[in-house]
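Thread: sanity check for a docking pose with pyridoxal-5'-phosphate

Original post by kr_44:
Hi all, I'm comparing my docking run against an independent structure prediction. Below are the sequence and the ligand SMILES. Could someone generate the full complex and paste the structure tokens? I mainly care about where the ligand ends up relative to the chain.
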Amino acid sequence: MTQSDPAALAADHLAGNARIDEAVAAIVDELRTAQATLDGARPASAALAESYQQWIDRNATVRGRGAWYPYVGSGVGRGPLVELLDGSVKWDMIGGIGVHLFGHGDPELVEIAVRAGLSDLLMQGNLQYNGDSIEFAELLVAEAAKRSRLAHCFVSNSGCMVNESALKVCQQKTGGAPRIFAFAGCFMGRSTTMSQIGDNAAYRQGVPLNALVDYLPFFDPALGERSIEMARWHMEQQILRYPKQHSCLIVELVQGEGGFNTAPREFFLPIFELARAHGIPIWDDEVQTFGRTETMYAFERLDLGEFVDVLTLGKMSQACACLFTAEMNPGPGLLSGTFSASTAAFRVGRRLLERMRDGGHYGPDGGNARLHRAFREGIAAIQGRHPEWFPTVPLEFGRSTDEVVGGIGGMMRFTPFGGDKAKVMRLLHTMFEEGVIAFACGHGPYHVRFLPPVGVMRVEQFAPVMEIVERALARVAMEPAETA
Ligand SMILES: Cc1ncc(COP(=O)(O)O)c(C=O)c1O
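Reply from moderator J.T.:
Ran it for you. Here is the predicted complex with pyridoxal-5'-phosphate included:
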């Protein structure tokens, strides 16, 4: 920079700086060396058992309760593999519930984060921000606008917070309409309002109820056409009962926590048309689906973008966002907050979205779809060897299903032991011990949920994962009924 150049910035010194490039290259090189030994699952080391237990105890003390898994990471991982402080290495098939789409320690993303550390701001906000914040939001809008009317983007720091923002946008647009349409089994986050809309009694225990939610039944493949009629009928009834009282219809196009339930376009279409006919804004909650199905936005695959008035996303994007159409753009003052996201989250988020978009991950034969097929084949092979671990799954109204795998793209589920809650939970803990981290979804039947790092996982890596799953299934199947 010279003082005589009026367009020069102090920041120019850092861009394209050979010494910084060299230093960053050295850092990433050392990371690769540290990662080199991580090439498969590994049991915990006895020498680290005591210090690990101390970590687990300290966490329980400071949190006030024990964690679901005895998990404390060492800070080093490699793609789908993660090292814990007990010396074990595990296949991470849940990615902090869908956040780590590129797994652990992706060298390019680490490099971006290291460079982001040079920024004057660790956290960016709604009052003061850098270009990163604008570029991130622009990318989300540009991709959404290809197949929808979404035009603007507000960034905030959790899925729940962008959902709160979306609700306010809808409420303001409908003049403070007090009621909300949502689907049975939905999940939206843990604020006082979102835990009331989310369809799980445990998550709203002790919370005074002040949200008026009308639930619609989600698609039930066993009922087919009838399921579509039922959902529409329920909605019509509530509109008749409470005309002009609904601020929004909230929908997860693939239900996440509810059980990785999918539905065809024909299910949503009549419901969306009804909402539109009655001036009820449609809000697509893609906090879990975003980036993971066979398209970047789940609405693209179902070609439903024209109906979407508001959309929320998060998790794999690293920073969370609420997108809305020009007509839904709220008045000043409705949306803000001190934090938007960290500089590293903006830069890493933008790069991983580009890599997903340009790296052959989407489409019916893209990476996400291929990994999904590998997952289904892996489970089918285990089922072929051990059909007794996959009995018929009981459903409501005395019905049942033999479908034991489900989901789409990077949202994968399987249903062992008839979806029995105790056995599925036991299986998850056994898988963890054996070297695979997953989680549950569904409210009965219960499923094993995988949200693997589809950005970096390779099809052949399902082989060692499935070996462990099979071992864990065998252990749980052999346990006496009362402890299982
Ligand atoms: C569909 C959906 N909406 C909202 C949320 C809440 O996001 P967060 O946990 O980031 O607040 C989640 C989280 O799992 C989700 O799956």
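The longest helix spans residues 367-385. Hope that helps with the comparison, let us know if your pose agrees.
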